[in-house]
User: Fold these one by one.
Assistant:
Number 1:
Amino acid sequence: MSDRYSQIVNSFPGKLVAGRVGLPQPTELDRYAAGEPLVKGRVLLGTAPGGRLGAPIAKLLADAGSEAATTPDDALRAAAADAGLDAALFNPEIGGDQRFKALVFDATGIKDSTQLVELQRFFHPTVRKLERSGRVVVLGTPAFGTDDARESTAQRALKGFTRALGKEVGRGSTVQLVYVSPGGEDELGSTLRFLLSPKSAYVSGQVIRIGPGVAKTPKVDPEKPLEGKTALVTGASRGIGESIAETLHRDGAKLVLLDVPQLSEDLQKVAKRLDADTIEIDITDEQAPKAIADKLKKGVDVVVHNAGVTRDRTIAKMPEDRWSSLMEINLSSEERINDELLGRGLIAANGRIVCVSSMSGIAGNSGQTNYSTSKAGVIGMVEALAPTLAEQGLTINAVAPGFIETQMTGAMPIAIREAGRRMNSMSQGGLPVDVAETIAWFASPASTGVNGNTVRVCGQSLLGA
Amino acid sequence: MNSKTRRVAVIGGNRIPFARSNSAYSKASNQDMLTAALDGLIDRYSLDGERIGEVAGGAVLKHSRDRDLTRESVLGTRLAPETAAFDVQQACGTGLEATILIANKIALGQIDSGIACGVDTTSDAPIGVNEGLREVLLEANREKSTGGRLKQLAKLRPGHIVPEVPRNEEPRTGLSMGEHCAIMATDWGVTREEQDELTIRSHDNLAAAYERGFNDDLVNSYLGLERDQNLRPGSSLEKLGKLKPVFGGPEGTMTAANSTPLSDGASSVLLASEEWAKERGLPILAYFSEGQTAAIDHVHKREGLLMAPAYAMPRMLDRAGLKLQDFDLYEIHEAFAAQVLCTLKAWEDPVFCKERLGLDEPLGSIDREKLNVNGGSLAAGHPFAATGGRIVASLAKALDERGEGRGVISICAAAGQGVVAILESAGETK
């Protein structure tokens, strides 16, 4: 762990003192290393009576070779047997010393607010059995997935539950809500894999929507989902961009890395290491969209709009050029590049556009009216393009990073830095790789049902929640 | 080679009442009790001086002097001394496995009659000399000269006085049977209440069986004991609910009531060919039609220690062309109430049946009203090797009372083993 406070409170005397005086005690988060199993421990699967997702979840766990247990629900046991999942039984009514690395609850059977008590029945006896860096995933039906007002109300209520639970679980555990619309059941795989694995270490309190796939979901090797795919990453010479490049490379992608000519040296170093092609260009340049498209004329599978800057000033002190240059880099250039690539049909079938928004785009941040506007605009772009891209068999999604440990945050004044680090459910900052893993999940060819989502990578920050 | 087999008749059984450990039978040895059980059988079926085809039996806890325990016991009975006998040992499966062995010999025509029996005492336990002392004594024995022997004996230390006591634990896991079963209970989500209910039924059923005289020709009194000492009918969930768990830690569900106590006792069953029975005018209570053993890997694959019967059952049913529901009576040995409930849950569970048993469909549930209708081990007690004989004789008699139908037996054993068997009513043919 990089920050000194975490190092101190995780030492023996530090732990003792911090525990006594009630200081935040960040847990060292599990992070993914290539070749590791999906979940390092047992997964407990439960359901509200009548849930419709038992079968796809059981199938995923069986495919992943996960050690699993289920509650005694008859339909769930039958689904597990059909999926070939050798799941043990767990009866929440009795005690026992089992521990679980993940708790997965299918809440789609909840049709009325009176049935929300199923959440209490499943989690009350099990939440203390969750191991460190544990995972909780609740699955529901989105409001538009039903015509029934009672069902819609109860399903909307799940958001309150998961967000509150995220703040209760502690010890580096995460809690997510996944809304699976009818027809999206078979597209659950890549998302559940991401959320159960250490790849989602710093993602918590999120609501993710999964719909019917925009294309036929191909079978992918979970170790190399991007094998044979080409990915463009902007702003790739350092920081989060470099981490994105490394992660997509690990997943098997052939990379085209882009950055401004001033950062050529850094960019070439990364490119050499990752055996990547490069484009050295200022994306705000009028010729940039065409130049990029020309370079990608054989087509591209994944476009990651990562390049971005801050030009902080309060609006009272903000000159127009400071506003405009940022808006050009963070938003307008992305729109133009999208238009050019889409217009020329260069984004391959079942392709992906992944954007980087920011927590500032959701919460707003003092001194960052320009930045917050651009990053909120990125979310708007995702929402606006998602339906049309779906028709073309493409998806667009965004990540919204919170406090990520980079050179930039390292240079912050200590008070602001510590506030940013601790004011979230993990009591620590995230790492660039946490953002990169989230992007890799969006980018996977298996994520055909994930479209129009903005997922925060913020450790469930209190800001803008 | 004989390629034909013949039907094996269960003529009847006899046992002594089962006693709680260190109580009524504390001074009786395995051989005493087994001889008593056999003598009762001899009286009941007029076998005085008869040369029986073969006697198979055994005990789980044995003294080193109990070499050929069964043969030595036979020599103490009024059977012809020319009756051959051999010892069997398969933990708590000993009694039923002995029955299968005798039945197979009869079926093959190798013998016409046979007795399967078993005995165990936890009171007269085989305490051994200290392992260090034993080594010194053996070394001294190997020395040729007196000096050498004295030199070896000089190695004796005060600590060598501490004896070796038999322990109720699995050699390969170090966990007791109860601790193993507690893990299973948790794995299968068995509640305290379910276990206590089964326990109450076991006692009430056994008491009712005694009341209506069911055991009159199955049990002979011994050393002042007329009925099984552990029997406590008329209990309630409230009363049993007060007991503290003894296995599985403070949150455990297993108590002294819903686990069998350590006990002493012996049982025997007389089996024969139909002709042999007819010649002597002996009744046929039932036919012994199938037997099967199975073992699981509790060491490396971490299967529940007492789950082997769950594996043995479908193998036997498959061979017999029967479904689990095709029985009128079920005798599942109640080593622990949780063991019975885990087994039933496993057979009902689609995942276990598909992944572990390789079945397309779960075996399904059974009618609990047909389970252990004349009481089980929780009420009667469980002198390990004697339990099989108790169950075979009791089920054969219950089938005879019904006059039709079929019964199945399931017995779990230590070291991850299980024995199951099928008995068919003799019906009209008897």
Number 2:
Amino acid sequence: MSVRSKGMSLRKLLGLLISYGVLILVTVVLMLPVFWFLLTSVKAESEFVSWPIRVFPAVPQWSNYVKAVTWFPFARHAWNSFFLATTTSILTIITSSLAGFAFARINVPERNKLFRVIIAMLIVPGIVTLIPQFIVYARLKLTNTYWPWILGALSGSPYFIFMFRQFFTGIPRELEDAAEVDGAGPFRIFWQIFLPNSLPVIATAFIFNFNGVWGDWLMPTLYLTDRNTTLAVKLAQGIRNPHAESVFIYTVSMAGCVIFILPMVITFFLAQRHILQGVVTSGLKG
Amino acid sequence: MFKSSAVWLLGDQTGRRRLSSRAWRKRVTFYLFISPWVIGFVALYLIPLVLGLLTSTTNYDGTDLAHLKFVRLDNYARAFSDPEAAFTAGRTLLWVALNLPAWLLLSFMLALILNQGLRGRGIFRTLYYLPSVMPAVATVWTWKIFLDNNFGLLAAIVDWILPGAVIPWLTKYALGSMTLVSLWGGLGSGMVIFLAGLQGIPRELEEAARIDGANRLQVFGYVTIPLITPVIFFQLIMGLIGGFQALVIPLLLVSGYSSRTPPRSLYLYMVYTYNQIFVYQRFGYGTALLWILFAVILSLTLLVFATQRHWVHYEVEAEGER
């Protein structure tokens, strides 16, 4: 703002210097682990375990990335993660937006009371429901299937219901009034007017849910066995060399992790504005 | 006259009936729209919660129903006399006491700096948020190889500053390390929310205070801070609820690949509960521990809510904010 104004006082300049100094320092501190993580993924294992440390690899080992996807059934586990993340996102968006619409537009006397239940659900610690849910699913013999994800998504998410409700409340009434005169029922209004007009929220909810399921370690650890589990669980175990007594290899494991986080980082850069807006409205962490 | 009044009555009745049938139809539509959520809420939240509560009064081991016994409040009595539960609860309190204030303070400070309208603040905001995008598994690997004493970058930096010094990051100081990991992954989202709150403060208020002769510190203390207290309040509640539930990061950060017991330093309450349930199959005892945690989180949340009127200011209803 005032960077260019001529008569800048010394004090202002000093303040500016301090501000930028702090910002750059924080950037360095935050990025240092990322830098090490990325460099490790292209080192030879012998370079990584040497002391004193070698910061840069002599020759970047891009083959680590090939090893990461061939040393274990990477594609299968990635598909499992992708399938779960996509399916649950679609289902939870449908059910959450339906409920969000009802809370925004269909006025019944008990609406606000029910909405308060949703708000209360936001502050119930997730772990308190997760473990009893596991006990129930285990008794129903639904462990080692994807049903816990599907059923959970079908019931919608209080976060997304809240998000959709907030967004739908802001849509001008004139749009639906005209449709109502034409004889459109609430479902048609929802489907043909509200949903097409809320692509940013849909995208945000999709990204949040996709990232949450794709990156989740706890639920697949509880529910799934080795074969049908997700990439996150496999990568948490680390990647081993199948040709050499299954020795754990750091560098290849890091390469696997880089591929694992790539979809999230890319969508973050593409949809940053929506994601940050979503963080603000729901307090959700991406 | 009788007839007309009958018509009038009848007319009124049909009118009322039409009206009430419309209201009724509206209600049916409303419940149809929210039915997936209602069914899910009952089947996936209420029922498991009640069953979890019932489980905590039994000796359930996860499979055996033939020897299921009702043990009344024994599991709760046991929890309160279990030294391990007390120890892990203490570590958890320490973890929350370390992490929560540091997170609130640092993310607020970053938001304040970025709120000055400096050039390039968009780039900084992106970079600070980036770690929040990383899922726990990748975060933990990143920090494991960063903190490793044999080949980590931080060990090398420490060794360069203080030759020969070795800091046991992932054993003795694991709790402190987890705070670092958690701040690294959480500063971005905290900052984004504070930034939005700061941008919601009407500029005119701060300018008016400046014109009235307040210096920058006074504006900050008497205008900015009071107006940002609702955001601090929200963040405090969310941080409190999240902090006590910490499970995945401690499980992954310091465990070997076979053992799930972290070093004493990072033996948090949820890790202990998790082990009781999934390693020792003590579902009854584990769910009792879980319900105690729930009660603690709930009472702390209510406590913070109760203090709200002493320090949270809602006077200014900023346009479009509330």
Number 3:
Amino acid sequence: MSLAAELAITDAGLKRSDIDGVLCGYSTVSPHIMLATVFAEHFGIRPSYAHAVQVGGATGLAMTMLAHHLVDAGLVRHVLIVSGENRLTGQSRDAAIAALAQVGHPDYEVPLGPTIPAYYGLVASRYMHEYGVTQEDLAEFSVLMRTHAHDHPGAQFQEPITVADVMASKPVALPLKLLDCCPVSDGGAAVVVSRQPTASARVRVRGCAQAHTHQHVTAAPALSELGAKLSIAKAKASVGVAISDVRYAAVYDSFTITLAMLLEELGLAEPGEAAALVRSGHFGRDGDMPLNTHGGLLSYGHCGVGGAMAHLVETHLQMTGRAAKRQVRDASLALLHGDGGVLSSHVTIFLERVR
Amino acid sequence: MIEPPADWTHGHAAILYQCCSSCRRVQYFRRAFCAACGSTKLDERPASGEGTVYAAALVCRAATQETAAHTPYNIVLVDTKEGFRMMAHGARDLAIGDRVSARFVPFAGHIVPYFEKMK
């Protein structure tokens, strides 16, 4: 976390002492009731505003949205958003799986022995049933994320894979197989949100919104009424942005089904058509809508809150023309979307490059 | 606090739900109030155990030793005849849309509802 924070502050052209706000995510490996001040003390800063935020996989974008409002309201000048966990080496795989499964209902779900892949496997089964999507369709998203991760030196998995590899991978919670699932990773990420531009490469929050429809999959609304649709509708309406304006997409991809569903709900693909767009190259680096060019959670890795923040970091690199081999032609307006729980909490953000 | 329910979550071979006396909405997650209208006048009722499969996922990789002993096991969401959705276990041959009914089976130290195709 300290390393990521140092890199972000330096990249913003600031000193640690400039940071007057700290937002940090939660940690499953090292939980603490006051993680933001634990970090601030460790890092050596005394912010005037600090606390942790917990919205599952949507935490990174929720903190970004909050930081935007905090600086906009004039409460603080520079907010450091930081998160990181050693989810892979800090605990056993069983412990990681068991800890995450606890997002289920303690009385009505957890005693049945579900896992996070099982919750999403349920959603996948219904989605496949309603829209005629196949397991091979879902596999396309793993293949795409791996193709993208190949060009990111920091990605956890870089070896190319095929649809056949995904289909042959170990069953986890069918219809989801091992390569439909993001890995458990170590890592961290940090971002600085400031009231005024601090560097020559300028990116600003154009608009953002949230929607929270439920916590537990048992209580989820119909597929057609999930939160992504609500949050993007609010975000679009508040700032007058249309999907046709978007040039780069960063979408939460804990599982292949998550990515497929979110792309379709956000309006980046027609219902049931996202996989066909992957096959056509639409979401590739040189396609019309480059998506998660760092490889996403599926291949870059998932270290918890920092994992989903990697989407934000990659978007910033793309928007400021510093994505090296992964650079896309035009990332002037980006759509970011995060999902927490089991499609429970949604945060949508539009970022815009400012000349 | 309300008394613990005499249902499968507390070791009894039953599925209970609540029906609001004011707005008539049903809810499965038990509360001291109706989540739709806030009324505290709730009727607790036993469910028939009949319903339709809404979704299914076959768990092959479990999180704990106790649950791993049961793999693979099918986790299902069932839309009950009474109008609420619940999570349970189900037979391996279940498909979405199947009409099902529940019995209760042991699982990792509890009993859990287990749905099978209606005969």
Number 4:
Amino acid sequence: MATFQLAINRKSYSVDVDPQTSLLTVLREHLDLTGSKYGCGEGQCGACTVLIDGKAQRSCITRVSSVSQKQITTIEGLASGDQLHPVQQAFLDVGAMQCAYCTSGMIMSAVALLDRNSNPQPDEIVSFMNGNVCRCGTYPRIVSAIQKAAKAKTAASAKGGSR
Amino acid sequence: MSAKSHLPIEPERYELRASPPYHFDLDRREFFKFLGAGLVVVSVLKPAAIAQESGGARRRGESLPQEIDAWLHIGDNGRVTVYTGKVEIGQNIRTSLSQAVAEELRVPLENIDVVMGDTQLTPFDMGTFGSRTTPTMNLQLRKVASAARDVLIGLAAEQWKADRQTLRAADGKVTDPRANRSVEYAALMKGQQLTEVLPAEDPLIPAPDWSVAGKSIPKVDGRDFVTGKHRYPSDQKLPDMLYGKVLRPPAFDATLVSVDTQKAEQIGATVVHDGNFVGAAAPTSQLAEAAVAAIHAEWKSEPQISNKELFDYLRKNTAEGKDPTGDGDRFDTGSVDQALSSADHKLQATYTVAYIAHTPLEPRAALAKWDGDQVTVWTGTQRPFGVRGQLAEAFRIPEEHVRVMMPDMGSGYGGKHTGETAIEAARLARAAKRPVKVVWTREEEFTWSYFRPAGVIDVTGGVKNDGTLTAWEFHNYNSGSAGIRTYYEVPNQRIVFHPVKSPLRQGSYRALAATANHFARESHMDELAHAVKMDPLEFRLKNLKNERLRAVFEAAAKQFGWGKSKSAGQGFGMGGGYEKLGNIATFAEVHADRKSGEVKIVRVVSAFECGAIVNPDGLRNQIEGSNVQGLGGALFEAIEFDNGKILNGRLSQYRVPRFRDVPAIETVLLDRKDLPSAGAGECPLIGLAPAIANAIFDATGVRLRALPLIPNGLKSIA
């Protein structure tokens, strides 16, 4: 067991766990941040995706010992108060979900994509998102939602918005 | 505890018992204890009617009480609470049922809460399967809401001494347009406790007049899902909760020879060994895993077949006469043998489908807590009342001592009809005397749940030179009887479902055997069309009288541009049918490169009709989703197994559809406001596989008769 200081959603946490423990287990079991989901345990489905220093990472195959000192963002930290992130809002507007178990991971991956490419083409979205699985089959809607979010973000920054 | 022997699955059979035996044991006083003041709408089932029900929901050894179901409550704060045993698994019925209630009760959607799948609070329900929610529960709740509206108008009429015919209900109020006055529903209650028994007949608002139903209302609690706030079954937590893990046998149907749990106990876990069940509970999941890993067990198992021998096995191991229902699995008309021998063209072909896994993204999960001899379980299941029964049976306690709750879950697709994790968590919790949560790993979900049945289908068709079908013989081994009957006009038919003792545990899967049966039928229709050199659409329509089915074929053909010319490597095909009260026709465009072996699904067009549409966008979502999910079973999903083990039970080994697999998808909705609304969760799945198979034939001249069609590309079969 060892103690790790974690910076999650702009808050500081201290956890006492085995260094081999996955970040996903720490989030869900120790910190009760259950928005990140378990889907496969081998980084194949993307349901557990979080941002680590802004990059989309699979928290189920990320050891907690590797992420102290880093900025971690989970789905719970995306909205600012009542104000949803443009990607969250776009998923709602488009209805880009059914059971929505994949939604947290999809949104986190999409946020990472739009942070490095503000205007992705459909094939770029497909290529970036291909590691995220939606068993209900809402992929076409997710692509639309990401395009919509890209437009909303661009419009907001043109207006001088912070996002 | 072999899952196979203790928790039998009945593929197909759930669908046959459409009418649920409603069941609720509280009396009127108890209702209001938890409902509070206000108006409650109930339905009462007379003892005689209950006695005739064959379902197992009745209380054992007790005289039959008058059974009362509470469906809807309007509190004196104006909140409307609706109670249904149906559950939300991604099909968005929390939204569509809210729309139904808002429509008839004339209240804003925001005022409605829907309590779903809680065995203590909701009326008995067989389960959420068979696309039954829209045709049955939507209708039921509309009736209930309509009855409540009538009561409220009556109360207002009484208060105002007005003629009720002149009063209107809208926006949570009763208004009197003549006297220019209105009163909120909540104010009409005046702290009273009112009970209204659902009348047998009550006119409902016709579909053309709908204002809330029939609209694309977004998911009612969507915000909770995009913020991560919603708690799925696997997210549930209680103070002092332990995590549970179960020791799995190395092969199916293995029996435990010896077990040593000493090391596991030393780790600090609660270890349970009860018959074939061995499991551990500990304060963290890691500790529980370590404890199970420290258990030394020896198992004994019998040799079992592999997927390579599967289809031969299915043919040779029929269990004729053992069909538990004994109904409707054989259909004969005319003289098939004679018609086949005199047909201008006769064609015989065999089609096969593999076992596939539902792979719901959320694996099975349950949290169990005991209070004395009463157990409460939160679990992901399509059958909360079924799981209640399983728990009662497993622990030999009355069903009244079991409460099962179903938080909206990470889907099921027919794969979560059973309560494995509920029983496991409850067994460990009883030993640990603390709440225990069990969440299956992906590997456990692949191995210890159940599969869509594999099957072999032999079809022989006879046709005249002019394209008239004359004979149809159809034998389905194991995959199931859903959708087995043909909707084409054929005077001579022999259609038989042959049950088989399945080598793997199998059960319901979205659309059941309708996928396999439509694949075989619609492929064979395509083969017959080519045999008589007719256009496949023309051939179908020549032999099809059903107007609703004709309409979807024609609508999809128009949108697709059927009859257009094609380029090299391009192929067009179609498949369609009637299932679960819905009608689908799907057209596919593929591009096949025989040199590289790559087949790309370029475009899919579906036309669908299921009566009056309750939520157009929700419906589109279901149809698109069916076509995307259906790509897996059509193209590459197949469970590989050998000697009681699953060989590809991980997401890195079992390929499911991903973003890159998705073609352009277009959906045409036919809204029949003159027809009752039906469900759409399953039917749209059935057209895709034959449409793709027929398009691949069109592109390459290669006829593929096995699902999945191209697990390794086209090269493997070219």
